[in-house]
Design a protein that fits this description.
22 helices; Leucine-rich repeat, LRR (right-handed beta-alpha superhelix); single chain; alpha/beta; F-box domain-containing protein
Length: 498
């Protein structure tokens, strides 16, 4: 392995670019590995999960190297301790490899030098100055909580012209976004956190000037009284004009009501080129809106994620989806809660629309009543949708409370259908609430599963922690029939995010 040539190493390290632990290990092999890995690691060094950047004194030492001598003298006078290592030359010109800025991470690293706000501000300002000189192009910018007008530096125009991803929040001054709008015209991924209740017109301008916007996310993150003015209308009117290029749309409104409902309805009718559509809270559609949804055509749609909805919503979108859908994700239990009155009819229609319109489906959330018709339709879905890799399942009788005996019988019927009709591509099943399998039924199912790819199972029923179940599960783990079997009473660990 240590004799692999540089081109092969580069390709391997590219695959590991988001795995900081593996990349750090590779740097220790030899000089060639280190020289090949450092530029990849430092392309976006602020993005790695699990790293506590405010404890990384080694990163602070590297950043300190780039400070002017007079700034070094200044921060020493202010009581900031610079390591003697900072006077030695660096093995690499690290900032020359960097293509990203993450304001909060840089703040955390620089805070190692001083706890005083003025000192931190001065060092950050100097860092950004040197970054703009050293960086050949800026690709990723997470500017949330920024206080520095860095687009005024001499080299900023050239750097920001290459920006392709921006994360921001609406608390930044309008003038800041106006400044970015002068240079940043080729952003492809724009992620906005809405921190307030009023419109930030700088955001509107920034959207308007984009020439190839493909990915857009909006997330409300505020509490308190409702809007004093409409913070959405102008933003989403500007976004509508990007319909030709936009293929990813994710919206999370704090309150799905009034203004937001109207906006979402309009958006859904405009963005016909979407491959990924995600919105987090849209429970209440009028009949008129549902009829309108049925007319929308999404020929390229591959992922549909609606967290909270009744089951009459998704089939309306699926019907004209073009047959390319691979993921349909939602919170199944919430679909029951918000569609109690029509759940039986809607869930049957949901299953029917999936196998009729989604032959390529790979990841699916599904909830239905344990009736003969529902089981029949579910088995038909399994036979037609042979690409299914992962299922999140809820069986719930909304009309009556099931006895334990009936729940066990429902579980037996379900496992018989799965063993009989599921394709060999199915590798994960998540059972959420109201599922119980007797020891005998579970063992029979696992025996029938033998010879297929190993199965991962997640469940919310604590019965599987009992000794006799654990013995059975461990046996089939050893036989590689089960890859993993997890119990959790935390819904978010089992729910729709595959």
């Amino acid at each position: 392995m240590s004799k692999l040539n540089k081109d092969i190493l580069f390709l391997i390290f590219e695959e590991l670019r988001e795995d900081s632990k593996s990349l750090f290990s590779c740097l220790m092999v030899n000089k060639l590995w280190c020289e090949t890995g450092i530029p990849i690691l430092w392309r976006n060094p602020w993005c790695y999960d699990g790293i506590k950047y405010n404890n990384k004194s080694s990163l602070f030492i590297i950043l300190s190297h780039y400070l002017f001598d007079n700034i070094k003298e200044f921060i020493t006078e202010q009581g900031i301790q610079l390591s003697s290592v900072t006077h030695q030359s660096l093995l690499f010109d690290y900032l020359s490899f960097c293509r990203s800025i993450n304001v909060n991470t840089i703040k955390a690293i620089i805070s190692i030098g001083s706890t005083l706000p003025y000192n931190q501000f001065s060092m950050q300002q100097e860092f950004y100055y040197f970054f703009m000189k050293k960086c050949s192009e800026l690709k990723y910018f997470d500017m949330r909580s920024i206080k520095h007008q860095i687009f005024y530096f001499p080299e900023s125009k050239v750097r920001f012209e290459s920006l392709c991803e921006l994360k921001c929040d609406t608390s930044a001054a309008t003038s800041y976004f106006y400044g970015l709008s002068r240079f940043c015209h080729h952003i492809q991924r724009l992620i906005i956190v809405n921190m307030g209740k009023n419109l930030n017109r700088g955001i509107v301008k920034l959207i308007e000037v984009q020439k190839n916007l493909k990915h857009f996310e909006w997330r409300d993150d505020f509490y308190g009284d409702y809007h004093t003015e409409d913070p959405y209308k102008e933003v989403f009117l500007a976004l509508e004009k990007k319909a030709n290029s936009l293929n990813y749309l994710r919206i999370f409104f704090q309150y799905a009501d009034g203004i937001e409902n109207t906006i979402l309805q309009k958006l859904l009718s405009k963005f016909y080129n979407l491959r990924i559509l995600m919105f987090d809270d849209y429970r209440f559609f009028t009949e008129e809106q549902l009829e309108q949804l049925k007319k929308q055509v999404y020929n390229d749609l591959e992922i549909l994620n609606i967290e909270w909805n009744s089951l009459n919503v998704i089939p309306c979108i699926v019907e004209n989806s073009g047959g390319r859908l691979k993921k349909i994700l939602f919170r199944p239990y919430d679909a029951i809660e918000y569609g109690q009155n029509s759940f039986n009819k809607d869930s049957l229609n949901f299953i029917h629309k999936i196998y009729e319109n989604c032959p390529l489906i790979e990841y699916l959330s599904i909830a239905f009543t344990p009736s003969k018709d529902h089981f029949t339709e579910f088995e038909k879905l399994l036979k037609i949708c042979q690409n299914l890799k992962s299922l999140l399942l809820i069986i719930h009788n909304v009309d009556k409370i099931e006895t334990n005996e009936k729940i066990l019988k429902n579980g037996e019927t379900l496992l018989e259908i799965l063993s009989r009709s599921a394709s060999t591509n199915l590798k994960e099943i998540r059972f959420y609430n109201y599922f119980k399998f007797s020891l005998e039924t579970l063992e029979e199912f696992l025996e029938k599963w033998r010879g297929r790819p190993a199965l991962s199972i997640l469940t919310s029923d604590s019965i599987y922690n009992e000794v006799n179940y654990e013995k059975l599960i461990n046996k089939y783990k050893r036989d590689e029939v089960i890859k993993d079997f997890k119990y959790s009473d935390m819904p978010e660990e089992i729910e729709y995010q595959f």
